[in-house]
Structure formats: C-alpha cells, structure tokens
C-alpha cells in the first residue's frame, strides 16, 4: 500500500506526496558449509498443563516443593507433553491469560511510568496516540532551521524516509524545498498537529521529532525526513 | 574496570572504555499493564489452533536443514550476496580499530541503531580532544562480538563527551522528474517505549 503525506513549503502551501523508508539490507547471510540456508521453525516446548507450577500443583511453590519435585522430574519425565513437544507450528494468536493460565475476556489497561532508575513515577490511563501525518493532517513547515553542524551531534538521527514526488507539479514543489534547505545548509524541523508536535506515523505509534534535509544536483533532488527520539547525552 | 577499545585515529593510538547509552537510562520508560476483572495482573500467552494455550516460554525456535535435521547455530558460516564465504569480522575489543575521517554528510545519511559513550581516562581526554576540534567524524567497522558482518560506527563528540553511533550507511537516490514514485510502502515504526519525547 502506498502511503501519502501532505507537507507544507515555506509559503505554507501544501502538496500530497509519498515517502519510502530507507534501510540497508544485510550483505552477509548465514548458511551451512555447502551453502544451504537452514529453515527457521517455531516449535512447541511446553504447554499450559506442563508448567512447573501446574506439575507441582501450586501457583507459588516453595523451595521445599521444588526440591521434592526434582526427584520426580528425573524419574518420570513428567514435564514433557508427549502430544505437543517438538511439534512445528506456524501462526499462533496472542491472548491474555490469568495467573492460572485461563483466558481472560475482560481486561483493564493501565500504564506504569518509571524514571531512569526504574522507580515508579506514576500509574495512569494509557495515552493512546493517533497518527498526525495521515489523512487530512499536514506536516507543518515550522521555519525553524538548524545548521547541520549544530544538529549532527545533538540528536540521534535514527530512521530515514525519502520523500518522493508523484507528478510533475510535486516534483517542482519538492525540488524547491530541497534547494531551500541546501542553500541554508540546514535541517528544518517538521511539526505535526498544530505545528509544534512530534510526528506520529501510525495510530498507537510512538512520537518522533522530524528533521527535513534537502539536497539538489542539477535537475534532481534528494529530500530526506530524519526521525529522532534520543539526544546525544551521557549517562552517569 | 571494563575492557578498553583501541582506536587508531590519524596514526595515533587512543583507548577508551565504552558504555551503551540506553534510551531508558536518559528518559525513563513506561509499561502497559493488563488486569483482569479481579485486579489480577494478566500475562500474554500464545493460543494454538484456537484451543491450546501455550504460556510464555513454551514456543522456541529451531533451525533445520532440508532433510528436517536440526542445525546448530555454531555450524553456520557467513556468505556474501555472491554466495562466497566470508571471514569473520573481529570484535572491536580484540583489534586496533582503524578510524577514517569521513564527511559529516556520510554520518547524517546513516541509519543509527545504537549509541555508546566513551569513558576516557582523565589524563587521556586532551589527547582525544585534539582530533575533534572541527566537527570531525570518524568511521570504523563495529562488531561487539566476533561475527560475520560488522556495522558502520561513527566516532563523534559534543560538549557532553565522545560517542560511537552504530548503524548502517545509506546511499540516497537523487530523483529526477521521470522518477515518479508508485512503489509500495511501508512498515510500521516501533520503538522500545512510549514516553513522550522531551528533548526540546
């Protein structure tokens, strides 16, 4: 599915264009000595009735329970589900289960927030974030330019998206944006929502800061949206 | 004291320990917790064929050959895309890592997946600083452990200290009018936690 976004230029005019993530594929693969690539399979190792707690018969066994169970485990191989152990499987569904591993049909969701030392700061209703780059949303031209040499060592530019034209008009539009950015030798912060918010690519996704970089070469352009969610900071 | 990494920069040999900068150590983290109606915490399990519950840890991964025999990971060797065997890339801890000065744009265009900070002995700091006076960026091959493929790693500095950014270099295509895009895109983006990004 092609994804489109709307983006503004410095004149606050917007156009709908498309984008593509930029990733490098691995250049080395692992195989057997004869070059044969092994197949990766999911396999069942255990099942609900064969967890240690179920075999012992207590939800919270004591050390004594574990000790006395060890002998039984060695002599009887009770932990192996002979029906399922070793069975190759493909797809499974994911469900919530309670402490007895029974399916749960009604759930309540909360979110625990921890500080950098893993201390609980607060427990709250989860904040579900909606995409602010799709549909009628327009990525705002904030006009906040940051010279490349001021930004490259301040934020971690982790992911990249190449922005692409979809017709002749949007070619001119993106070429001009790229030339503006190249002439300034700067990134420009792209904002979501009202213009100052981080970008959220998918419903339920994470927020990122977006930095637009543009370059031109004769009659061609390269416009890259860099995403970041971390600064270059040291930890003590 | 941790192991030191040796860097060869413009003919000089410099050393430093490295520490991974985990995002959660800078900004904290958050976790979604699911409760049942009795306020008991729930866990995620796999459901197989609509009726068999497989608790967490019950599903493993195995490698098999074309005859169905189990294959150990230690039996595998690396091949390049031409099908030729490749040598292992040594760990950064076991060699002098040759660092080559590159353009800032080479660094900016790379996709970065992990960050390490350098922990430099006090008496060595000045030796390091003289190679980072004009926004220099140095590139070397990074493998934490010996393996068949290394990553691209960039040495940079700022007022906080010195960092290694590990990722992959990219080459971008310059688009002409005729390169109208009708390609399929794109995967969802995921990161490790969902704290608001509070860097500005």
* Coarse shape of chain B: extended
CATH topology of the domain at 4-23 and 129-228 in chain A: Ku70, Chain: A, Domain 2
Report the total helices of chain B.
Answer: 3
Order of helices and strands of chain B: EEHEEEEEEEHEHEEE
Instruction: Using the coordinates shown, work out and report the CATH topology of the domain at 1-26 and 88-184 in chain B.
Output: Ku70, Chain: A, Domain 2
Helix tally of chain A?
4
Runs of chain A with pLDDT <50, length 5+?
none
The CATH class of the domain at 1-26 and 88-184 in chain B is Mainly Beta
C-alpha geometry of chain A: elongated
Mean pLDDT of chain A: 91
Number of strands of chain B: 13
Q: Kindly report how far apart the N and C termini of chain A lie.
A: 45 Å
Span between N and C termini of chain B? 35 Å
């Amino acid at each position: 599915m092609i994804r489109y976004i709307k983006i503004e230029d410095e004149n606050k005019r917007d156009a709908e264009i498309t984008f593509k993530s930029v990733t490098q594929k691995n250049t080395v693969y692992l195989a057997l000595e004869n070059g044969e690539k092994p197949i990766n399979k999911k396999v069942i190792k255990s099942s609900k009735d064969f967890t240690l707690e179920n075999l012992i018969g207590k939800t919270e066994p004591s050390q004594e329970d574990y000790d006395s169970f060890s002998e039984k485990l060695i002599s009887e191989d009770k932990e192996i589900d002979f029906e399922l152990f070793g069975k190759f499987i493909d797809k499974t569904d994911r469900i919530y289960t309670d402490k007895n591993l029974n399916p749960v049909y009604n759930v309540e969701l909360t979110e625990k927030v921890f500080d950098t030392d893993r201390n609980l700061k607060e427990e709250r209703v989860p904040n579900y974030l909606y995409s602010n780059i799709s549909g009628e949303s327009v990525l705002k031209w904030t006009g906040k330019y940051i010279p490349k040499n001021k930004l490259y060592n301040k934020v971690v530019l982790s992911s990249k998206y190449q922005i692409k034209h979809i017709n002749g008009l949007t070619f001119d539009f993106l070429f001009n944006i790229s030339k503006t950015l190249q002439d300034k030798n700067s990134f420009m912060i792209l904002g979501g929502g009202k213009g100052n918010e981080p970008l959220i690519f998918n419903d339920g996704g994470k927020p990122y800061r977006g930095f637009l970089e543009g370059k031109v070469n004769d009659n061609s352009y390269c416009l890259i949206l860099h995403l970041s969610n971390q600064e270059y900071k040291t930890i003590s | 004291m941790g192991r030191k990494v040796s860097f060869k920069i413009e003919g000089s040999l410099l050393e430093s320990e490295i520490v991974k900068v985990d995002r959660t150590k800078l900004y904290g983290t958050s976790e979604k917790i699911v409760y049942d109606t009795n306020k008991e915490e729930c866990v995620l399990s796999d459901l197989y064929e609509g009726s068999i519950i497989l608790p967490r840890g019950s599903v493993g991964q195995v490698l098999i050959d074309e005859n169905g025999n189990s294959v150990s990971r230690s039996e595998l060797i690396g091949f390049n895309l031409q099908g030729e065997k490749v040598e292992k890339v040594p760990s950064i801890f076991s060699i002098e890592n040759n660092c080559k000065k590159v353009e800032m744009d080479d660094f900016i265009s790379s996709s970065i997946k992990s960050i390490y900070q350098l922990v430099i002995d006090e008496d060595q700091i000045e030796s390091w600083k003289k190679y980072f006076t004009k926004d220099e960026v140095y590139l070397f091959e990074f493998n934490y452990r010996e393996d068949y493929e290394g990553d691209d790693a960039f040495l940079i500095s700022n007022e906080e200290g010195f960092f290694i950014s590990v990722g992959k270099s990219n080459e971008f295509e310059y688009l002409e009018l005729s390169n109208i895009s009708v390609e399929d895109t794109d995967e969802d983006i995921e990161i490790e936690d969902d704290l608001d990004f509070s860097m500005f």
